[in-house]
Amino acid sequence: MADVRDRTHVVIIEKKTGKKKRFPIMALQSEIVHYTAGMRSDEYLFASRKGNGPITTTQAYRALVKAASMIDRDDIGTHTMRKTFGYHYYKRTKDIVTLMEIFNHSAPSITKRYIGITQDEIDQSLKDFLL
Q: Which of 47, 75, 83, 87 has an alpha carbon within 20 to 30 A of 121's alpha carbon?
């Protein structure tokens, strides 16, 4: 919990690449304060009921799948949130280069395919574009 309370950024190490990534969390501070009220600084944000550690990625996935099933969705998982963030970030900013950096992708084409930007969407965005 000390990793997020009163912090401006959170640092993660990506499992796939081993690279460190910093993400801003200033906008979440009011929610973090509310969620962590009464918690000690050495407690995990999401503590496992088995043992003394945090929940595993598998447990996080199962929680999301269970929540999704409550709203009759069977297409939601942990990766869904990453892709959804990317899609909406791109739609709002049109900044594929920064999104590519956030995702640690090697090329914009990989990022576009990953977030589901189709050729039709690209064509539509260029329809009335002139320099």
A: 75
- Would you say 73 and 33 are in contact if contact means Cβ atoms under 8 Å apart? no
Query: What distance lies between CA 90 and its chain's CA centroid?
Result: 14
- Is the alpha carbon torsion for 130, 88, 107, 112 positive or negative? negative
| 3-class state of residue 131 by DSSP | coil
Q: pLDDT digit of tens for each residue in the chain (131 aa)?
A: 888 999 999 998 888 788 888 999 999 999 999 999 999 999 999 999 888 899 998 999 999 999 999 999 998 888 888 899 999 999 899 999 999 999 989 999 999 999 988 777 778 888 888 88
**DSSP 8-state assignment for residue 54:** B
The shares of helix, strand and coil residues in the chain, as percent rounded to the nearest 5, are: 50, 10, 40
